[in-house]
Design brief:
By secondary structure, the chain is an alpha/beta fold. Helices cover 31% and strands 29% of the residues. A 6-stranded parallel β-sheet has the order 1-4-3-2-5-6, with helices on both faces. It has a 6-stranded antiparallel β-sheet with strand order 9-14-11-12-13-10. Helix 4 (93-104) crosses helix 5 (126-136) and helix 6 (155-163) runs antiparallel to helix 7 (167-174). The two termini are 36 Å apart.
């Protein structure tokens, strides 16, 4: 899959099928649009494009690298990002269609959700896009919002669930396990000193992390998956800093993983992070957390 920037690479694509949106969580609703664009592109022997409008400064459920990995797995040909700049914001709906969909992406079919808005002051909607599609010669496919448990599936709903530590519910909306990926960095080796060595990730600032606490996870290392217990937080019992990190103690794993790329997939919430009066009490709690993890497998 190619990863392109709209500002730098706006005029290099051939005919394409385009999924339009923010695609922050690539949840089940987003999958409808993306799968539709990929299927149509294959039928027509053209390029499938996910065109993502990025809000500056906002924490993301998936980082750019994580999203690219997911889109690659969905057989998308091109992931094109567009920064939400003042110039872009000033485009009228018709100018957006002219400059982005027609001149840059050479779209033959465009896939959007029913609540899609575009152009200056969000003046354009799905009906506007249909009308402009007729004028400029491309098809428009509009999808209704998906619902689960009586509510619409949305990135904002997933963000709220993560903030509450409701991992299982967030995963259901995502259609996959929420995950944190990155390079294992050497920490202070405090886990080794108490008998529970960890693989430590220090996520990018843009990464949206779940409620600080302990989670049942699985960790992918060198193509192998290990059960693990993972702490998200600042480890207040043994450290005094406020930097959030993701520390995973893998069961049946005793290898050196420093410098390796790993993925931590969150499966269940165990408890909130808290400060313990002593190291021994922390050790006993970790043992209890691991026993709980093993018992629930």
């Amino acid at each position: 899959m190619k990863i392109l920037d709209y500002i730098k690479d706006k005029n290099i694509l051939p005919a394409s099928a385009v999924a339009l949106g923010k695609f922050e969580g690539i949840h089940l609703g987003h999958r409808l649009l993306i799968d539709g664009a990929v299927a149509y592109a294959r039928e027509q022997d053209i390029t499938s494009v996910v065109f993502t409008i990025c809000q500056p400064g906002a924490a993301r459920i998936y980082t750019r690298a994580e999203r690219a990995e997911i889109l690659t797995g969905l057989n998308v040909d091109v992931d094109m990002e567009c920064a939400f700049t003042p110039e872009f914001m000033a485009l009228s709906p018709e100018k957006f269609v002219e400059q982005v969909l027609v001149e840059s992406l050479h779209a033959t079919c465009v896939f959007v959700g029913e609540d899609f808005r575009f152009g200056k002051d969000r003046a354009g909607n799905a009906d506007t896009l249909r009308e402009l599609g007729e004028k400029y010669g491309f098809r428009v496919s509009v999808y209704e919002k998906l619902c689960m448990d009586g509510s619409e599936i949305s990135s904002s709903r997933i963000r709220d669930l993560l903030a509450e530590g409701r991992i299982a519910q967030a995963n259901a909306l995502l259609g996959r396990a929420y995950a944190v990926s990155g390079t294992v960095r050497e920490g202070k080796r405090l886990g080794n000193t108490i008998g529970f060595p960890t693989l430590n990730l220090y996520p990018e600032r843009e990464k949206l992390l779940p409620l600080p606490g302990v989670y049942g996870t699985e960790v992918l290392v060198d193509g192998k998956t290990y059960r693990a217990i993972t702490n998200v937080g600042s480890n207040p019992t043994v450290e005094h800093g406020k930097e959030l990190k993701v520390e995973s103690h893998l069961l049946d794993f005793d290898e050196n993983a420093y410098g390796k790329e790993i993925e931590v997939r969150f499966l269940s919430f165990v408890r909130e992070e808290r400060r313990f009066p002593s190291i021994n009490e922390l050790k006993n709690q970790i043992k209890s957390d691991i026993l709980s993890l093993v018992a629930n497998v």
